[in-house]
Specification:
The complex is a heterodimer. By secondary structure, chain A is of the alpha/beta class. Chain A is about 35% helix and about 20% strand. In chain B, strands 2-1-5-3-4 form a five-stranded mixed beta sheet, with helices on one face. Classes of the chains: A alpha/beta, B alpha+beta. The interface of A and B includes residues 82, 90, 94, 140 and 168 of A.
Chain lengths: ~180, ~240
């Protein structure tokens, strides 16, 4: 059997899910017998491949850039996994929702800036009004809550998904775990 | 022996059980180790049927009944865990999560929260409804406790604990429907209310909506077990 192509994507999250993914430690070697990481913040590929078997997405959708990325990821992935509470539920990034992006940007770049008070508008993507979980934009196949999901959760869930073994997510993790 | 002292027989989830007249379906189920999920019910407080998680099916009726306030009767046949009930319970949980701003990861009750635990128990891994993201206040005016309305599910345990057990009744509910919030006194700051600082409401709160300021991180288990004990001691007096 050829190895499954796996991608990991980092949207509006803290990278903690990727850290937890790396915390699988030596078990990554076992996983590497089953999968190839073809795209990820932790590998060199710069362009999302045309065909990916499993995409793990960390982070919520907070900007126009996130929105474009998640649509591209969905279009080129057979299975999409919402990885961690930000992707699953919005989590900490969504705490700005009742306040709105204008006030948040103003607090960060005008009110609390001692020099060069200006709201960044070039290179950085425009923020969406509301931060939302990824399933509000694209179809998600598997939800893996947790902040972050533990390395054990990643290993058990990925092994099950790759080998087709039964998977009970709620037995492994929960919101805020 | 009066009628109300009588023994009734009924069937819950196929089990033939006997119970005392006047007991609720929930009481009989729990005595017989049949799990019916609840959030507003708390041993030692009156029942209000607010959360609707304990809805059960009664044979011969189209209506679902809240087990915490529905009394048993002779020959009753109850189903507590059908596919239909599971579906309703998941929707109720989703509505609770979508209604306010429940961010488990930064909550003082993370790991000790009844809402979070129930979501896990019932296998809820995401909320399919759009989040409302309401702008809600946090009342930190009290010297010992904080009320974070973002995390409140309107179970009204605090209202009942304060009125029924402490006898102070400083908690109540203001507004209607989705705009309801719990308030202290006549919507005054908790810190300047007639609060006796007993902390019973905090121990009863199923989520991180009411919490002790001395607790940091997510180290805030709640201990409401004293309620039935207090009631027992008072009855014995």
């Amino acid at each position: 059997m050829s190895k499954l192509k796996v991608a990991t994507v980092w949207l509006d999250g803290c990278s903690g899910c990727h850290m937890s993914f790396l915390d699988m430690d030596e078990r990554l070697l076992k996983l590497a017998e089953l999968i190839d990481i073809v795209y990820s913040p932790i590998v060199d590929a710069k362009v999302f491949p045309d065909e990916v078997d499993i995409a793990l997405v960390e982070g919520a959708i907070a900007s126009v850039d996130d929105e474009a990325k998640i649509k591209k990821v969905r279009a080129h992935s057979k299975m999409l996994i919402a990885m961690g509470d930000c992707a699953v539920a919005g989590n900490v990034p969504s705490m700005r929702n009742p306040i709105g992006p204008e006030k948040i940007l103003d607090r960060a770049y005008i009110e609390n800036a001692s020099a060069q008070q200006q709201i960044p508008c070039v290179v950085v993507p425009k923020l969406l009004k509301i931060v939302r979980p990824i399933h509000e934009f694209v179809n998600v196949d598997v939800f893996l809550p947790g902040c972050p999901p533990s390395a054990d959760t990643f290993y058990t869930a990925l092994t099950a998904l790759v080998t087709g073994a039964p998977l009970d997510i709620s037995a492994l993790t929960r919101f805020g775990a | 022996m009066s009628e109300s002292m009588g023994v009734k027989t009924l069937i819950i989830d196929g089990q033939e059980l006997s119970a005392r007249a006047g007991q609720t379906i929930l009481e009989v189920a729990r005595e017989n180790e049949i799990n019916i999920p609840t959030l507003c019910h708390l041993e030692g407080l009156s029942n209000v049927g607010a959360c609707r998680l304990c809805l059960v099916e009664i044979k011969g009726s189209n209506k679902l009944l809240p087990a915490c306030v529905a009394n048993i009767h002779e020959g009753m046949e109850v189903v507590t865990n059908s596919e239909r009930l599971k579906k309703h319970r998941l929707v109720i949980l989703e509505l609770l999560f979508a209604e306010r701003n429940h961010i488990c990861a930064v909550c003082v009750s993370n790991g000790h929260c009844e809402l979070q635990a129930l979501a896990q128990e019932l296998g809820l891994t995401h909320i399919s409804l759009p989040y409302r993201n309401p702008a809600l206040t946090v009342d930190a005016s009290h010297e010992r406790f904080t009320a974070d309305h973002n995390r409140c599910i309107l179970c009204m345990r605090c209202v009942r604990a304060c009125a029924e057990i402490e006898g102070a009744h400083i908690w109540d509910v203001m507004g209607r429907g989705i705009d309801s919030i719990v308030i202290t006194d006549l919507h005054d700051d908790w810190g300047s209310s007639a609060c006796t600082r007993c902390g019973k409401c905090v121990q009863c709160c199923p989520t991180g909506a009411l919490f002790d300021k001395s607790k940091i991180g997510s180290d805030h288990p709640k201990y409401p077990d004293f309620l039935p004990y207090l009631n027992l001691m008072r009855e014995a007096r």
